[in-house]
Amino acid sequence: MEGFEEESSWSVLNHQTYVLDLKEANQRGIAPWTLEYDARKAYNFAANLTSLAWGKLLQDWSSYLQHNITSENSSCCLVESLQWVV
Question: Taking the domains of the chain in order of start, what are their residue ranges?
């Protein structure tokens, strides 16, 4: 997140998720955090993680799911959930 500058917008610049294997940490006595994903790289965001960028991503997912989920494999409610969000 940017900030603390006079002209800052306090925008979220990126989001990264890290995971920790507790079993390994207990065995080795150290906590090896591993990067699981970087949002800008994973979702091909060229700029900051704006609400517009997330909204476009949800629209793209919704469109993809609507055209690729058939009645045979629509046992999940993800398509309906994304339609409600978008």
Answer: 1-48, 50-86
